[in-house]
Amino acid sequence: MSRILITSGPTRQYLDPVRYLTNASSGRMGKALAESALAAGHEVVIVSGPVEVQYPAGAEVIPVIS
Predict the structure, then answer these.
(1) What is the rounded distance in angstroms from the CA atom of residue 8 to the CA atom of residue 6?
(2) pLDDT digits (tens, 9 = 90+) for 10-57
């Protein structure tokens, strides 16, 4: 069994207190990767920007903004 780290979802890089750069990631690919890794018996850690998807219950999720 391996421990797998997956980065998923959008992040924000603040330019100043009002403006930021971001990407349009939905988190769906990270969810699919996590499901596959868990099904193969691996331990999964997901570092995720704010998303609407529900990651698998067996994964440890670390929420981030930037």
Answers:
(1) 6
(2) 999 999 999 999 999 999 999 999 999 999 999 999 999 999 999 999
Rounded to two decimals, what is the model's pTM?
Answer: 0.87
Which residues are tagged catalytic?
A: 23
The pairs formed by 50-55 with CB atoms below 8 angstroms and a separation of 24 or more are 50/9, 50/10, 51/8, 51/9, 51/10, 51/25, 51/26, 51/27, 52/26, 52/27, 53/26, 53/27, 53/28, 55/8, 55/27, 55/30, 55/31
